[in-house]
Amino acid sequence: MQISNEDYVLYKPLLFSLGYRMTGSVSETEDLIQETFLRAYQLPELEVENKKAYLCRMMTNRCIDFLRSAKVKREQYIGPWNPEPLLQPGDQRTDPSEILMEKEYLSIAYLRMMEHLTPHERAVLLLREAFGFSYSEISRMIEKTEENCRKLFSRSKQKMAAAEGESLDYQRNLSLIQRFILAFQTERTEDLLELISENVTLYSDGGGKVKAAVRPILTRQRVLAFLQGITRNLPDEVQFTLTTVNAQPAMVNYMNGRIHSTISFSIFDNCIAEIYITMNPEKLGG
């Protein structure tokens, strides 16, 4: 199959956008993209009418294979598993991969919910809803009947229903997070109670590489106590900045010029419903 440099530049963002949403991993997605283009280049000369659909088919099936092989690893993962943060400092276009084509279906909350789907359910949901492929096209991509694809889509939508109320309004979310940080720093309890859901959950991902909570932290009181504890124990050289992670405002903490951790938020009904702290150095370029 003939793949030019122009094809690579044109389709790489699309494949990254698909692969990252399916796997939740920047590094694995980049590897799968390279495998996809290499395999396409090695194929015999074919008359491919739709390179986009053909490459998406190859990438989708590589992602499905990866998710099957990764299932055991994730079941054995130490503590909560958070997706690898997609850092977008100032939204400067420094790849991966030109900071995605679209910013929907990208929040940490959404990608965590995707863990409840089978590999084929993920594929059908994203190909249909995020990328607009027809059931006929999806059927050929994953080699299942159109009727089966429709059932997979319906099941995936039911499983993902809890993520549908999440606020994706960037400016509104940024304002709320800024108010939360200020209230936390100044110990304004009344403001904190207003900004955080009573049933908030905190997921701390150290992956067994660094110290982190091995179980989700539940309820407002316990979450605030946990945050106060880690804040007290942070080294003096740790500094944070508010930036963009997975298309939403988030905190990125730096120590000695390297990323120490990221803190992302899921907001429902003008309250912080979930907090995701990622400290696993393998997910932070460490």
UniProtKB/TrEMBL annotation:
GO molecular function term, any single one: DNA binding
SUPFAM superfamilies linked: NTF2-like (SSF54427), Sigma2 domain of RNA polymerase sigma factors (SSF88946), Sigma3 and sigma4 domains of RNA polymerase sigma factors (SSF88659)
Domain RNA polymerase sigma factor 70 region 4 type: 109-160
Domain RNA polymerase sigma-70 region: 10-71
GO terms under biological process: DNA-templated transcription initiation
Transmembrane segments: none
Subunit structure: Interacts transiently with the RNA polymerase catalytic core formed by RpoA, RpoB, RpoC and RpoZ (2 alpha, 1 beta, 1 beta' and 1 omega subunit) to form the RNA polymerase holoenzyme that can initiate transcription.
This protein's name: RNA polymerase sigma-70 factor
